[in-house]
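Hi support team,

I've been running sequence recovery on a batch of backbones for a student project. Most finish fine, but this one hangs at about 90% for roughly twenty minutes before it completes. I'm not sure whether the input is malformed or the queue is just slow. I've pasted the structure tokens below so you can try to reproduce it. Let me know if you need the job ID as well.

Thanks,
M.K.
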């Protein structure tokens, strides 16, 4: 992972800390065979938050809508805060599923690191904000 990516991950961790985010679980895309940039970013962010001890699930199935429906959504419905760290394609897939839009709408819309925050109400409706690593708002819905 390049130095710029590490710095962006550190900035993202600081932004999450400043905004007082706390997570109950982290989910990361990848396999156990390599330490991916997503894994390095997750480690940097969790260190900034002082949350190195939360449960981390690593999966290669983040693109699958069923993974969101069966694994992530139930955690959110229980009121848990879930941190998902992945490359653009799995994130775009999750976003398209949540928002009922095409994957293409979300691909390539941000730099290396973006903080995409969904806030769900009890009816399952959401507000979404995308921040750059320094905490500046890129877009909201």
């Amino acid at each position: 992972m390049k130095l710029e990516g590490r710095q962006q991950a550190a900035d993202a961790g600081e932004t999450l800390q400043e905004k007082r985010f706390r997570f109950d679980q982290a989910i990361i895309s990848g396999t156990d065979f390599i330490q991916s940039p997503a894994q390095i970013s997750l480690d940097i962010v969790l260190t900034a938050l002082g949350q190195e001890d939360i449960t981390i699930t690593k999966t290669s199935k983040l693109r699958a809508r069923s993974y969101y429906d069966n694994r992530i959504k139930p955690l959110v419905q229980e009121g848990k805060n879930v941190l998902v760290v992945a490359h653009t394609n799995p994130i775009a897939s999750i976003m398209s599923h949540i928002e009922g839009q095409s994957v293409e709408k979300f691909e390539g819309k941000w730099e290396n690191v973006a903080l995409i925050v969904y806030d769900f109400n009890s009816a399952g409706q959401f507000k979404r904000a995308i921040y750059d690593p320094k905490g500046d708002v890129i877009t909201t819905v």
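--
Follow-up from support: It reproduced on our side and the slowdown came from queue contention, not your input. The chain has one domain: 3-140. No action needed from you.
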